[in-house]
């Protein structure tokens, strides 16, 4: 399937609309394929064998299911370039590889057209062209934007900069270099003393003894070797702190970092992984594998946990159904 971007969708689905908006905002060309939900296509069944539902985003022949996971994937895919000049070592190399994957995608999407929009600048051209002013600096730091590998993309970049509408909006290359060099230095100064930041940071976890979701947060904190204060919550008499920190759902777990709350166990785990990124990564670095990890983690939360819970809270027929659903979900 090459570098095609395909969205399996249904015209009235709010979840499909969510993904389409993300694609449009990012200026990504894609094919929107309408699904007949009463007669699902073999492609849909193949790409989402678990739920067999839309929307499904297909990128490079690989599927990303669940609308919010797809939106996160789109957002992260398009922001890879920013990581290049704010990171070092293996993380920088990973960002470089992902950035080049994006260039490869754009190279193929251009085809023989002068612009992504055809004969004139289009939405994707306008969205992407500001990145060109960073190329000089990117090459100084990494020397990886190779004209031989991406001739169409480089030719497109030169064509764009020759247009007055573009060139008059661009800053001078040396000013970009000075700005990014200063920004990079400041970011490195902030990131290097990570141990000192952690010592100053006050981390509190609101949980309940047998709460499965609280255990998820505890394990993530333990894996990262983060010191934290644990505050047991009485769920029959919720504390003012819990109600203040999670006013929407009033549920545990809640992670409090620097006095700010992070709610929902999977969001907490991702937050922990991002903030304390220097040891024991919990999510894969590759975007596709990260999307798959999010999908299966959400599957455990939404399907496996609820199926197991129904076994002991239900009776009769409903309990028998739950007994069948639970082992089925483990398959």
Automatic annotation (TrEMBL):
Biological process terms in GO annotation: glutathione metabolic process
Alphabetical list of Gene3D superfamilies matching this protein: 1.20.1050.10, Glutaredoxin (3.40.30.10)
Record has Transferase as a keyword: yes
Molecular function as annotated in GO: glutathione transferase activity
Transmembrane segments: none
SUPFAM superfamilies: GST C-terminal domain-like, Thioredoxin-like
Domain annotation GST N-terminal: ranges: 3-82, 201-280
PANTHER family assigned to the protein according to its UniProt record, in alphabetical order: GLUTATHIONE S-TRANSFERASE U19, GLUTATHIONE S-TRANSFERASE, GST, SUPERFAMILY, GST DOMAIN CONTAINING
Protein name: glutathione transferase
Lineage: Eukaryota, Viridiplantae, Streptophyta, Embryophyta, Tracheophyta
